[in-house]
Amino acid sequence: MSERTLVLVKPDGVERGLVGEVISRIERKGLKLVALELKNVDRQLAEQHYAEHDGKPFFESLIEFITGGPVVAACVEGSNAIAAFRQLAGGTHPVEKAAPGSIRGDFGLEVQFNLVHGSDSPESAARELKLWFPDLGA
Ligand code: CMP
């Protein structure tokens, strides 16, 4: 079944020039870009996006990091898009969880600087896409 997911190339990925690499992997997998935007993230959007992590020890540094430079936000569509992108991204920790061959496994070292974000469920995808792409519709 076709579904949509939110993908972010985080400030570390943009800074390191990995936007093309990430988009290329998305396209080669067979997923489609529905929307794509380079965006500076304000504190309000960052806190809403990461609301589930509010109160965790790394919350403040996560908010500072994601607001510290532009991100590339994409709405990505296709069959099983949510799981498909999470497979492309690899596990949250680039060394301890992400396998070589995944984006994080190939390019990352530290959990905070893990290059990309992908929605983790249909509910998260709907919530996050509404936040990042309010004009896109359902
Ligand atoms: P993401 O998939 O965007 O979802 C939450 C983010 O929090 C995660 O990727 C990491 O960038 C970050 N994160 C998770 N655990 C930690 C941690 N222990 N220390 C710092 N950042 C973390």
Automatic annotation (TrEMBL):
Binding of ATP, residues: 10, 58, 86, 92, 104, 114
Reactions listed under catalytic activity: a ribonucleoside 5'-diphosphate + ATP = a ribonucleoside 5'-triphosphate + ADP; a 2'-deoxyribonucleoside 5'-diphosphate + ATP = a 2'-deoxyribonucleoside 5'-triphosphate + ADP
CDD domains reported for this sequence: NDPk_I
Subcellular compartments: Cytoplasm
Record's keyword annotation contains Phosphoprotein: yes
Active site: 117 (pros-phosphohistidine intermediate)
PROSITE patterns: NDPK (PS00469), NDPK_LIKE (PS51374)
Pfam families: NDK
Entry cofactors: Mg(2+)
Keywords: ATP-binding, Cytoplasm, Kinase, Magnesium, Metal-binding, Nucleotide metabolism, Nucleotide-binding, Phosphoprotein, Transferase
Sample GO molecular function, one term: nucleoside diphosphate kinase activity
Function comment: Major role in the synthesis of nucleoside triphosphates other than ATP. The ATP gamma phosphate is transferred to the NDP beta phosphate via a ping-pong mechanism, using a phosphorylated active-site intermediate.
Assembly behavior: Homotetramer.
Family: Belongs to the NDK family.
Entry protein name: Nucleoside diphosphate kinase
